[in-house]
Amino acid sequence: MAGAEGDRLGPAVVGSSNYAPPTSRQLRAHSVQRLQIGLFGLALMLLLVGLANIIKDRARMADAQAGVGAIVGSGAGSAAGHAAPGDPLADLGVVPAQESRRAAGGPRPRNGGNGGSGKAR
After folding, report:
1. Which of 57, 82, 95, 101 has a C-alpha 20 to 30 A away from that of 43?
2. What angle do CA 90, 94, 99 make, to 5 degrees?
């Protein structure tokens, strides 16, 4: 019965000449290669974080210099020292500016400026 089961599974492999276990030199070479790849990846991440930090610092310095110029240029006209934020769509030219719409008698807000209730107070 053992012979019939062995035939069904295939012939037993007594010795395979195709496979040779890696030598200690090959195992050491693979370990050194994995270590080199890991250290290279770690160094690359460190360089990327350093580069991002430099870019962030330069942007912060540019914003600080632009902010100082805006405060000095605005004078005492603004209490906060910054210009009022404009309409970004009007700045891009997608819609006309609020001042030009009011001067031209353009459309008024639907809620009539009373908080959206629709009723006059």
Report:
1. 57
2. 35
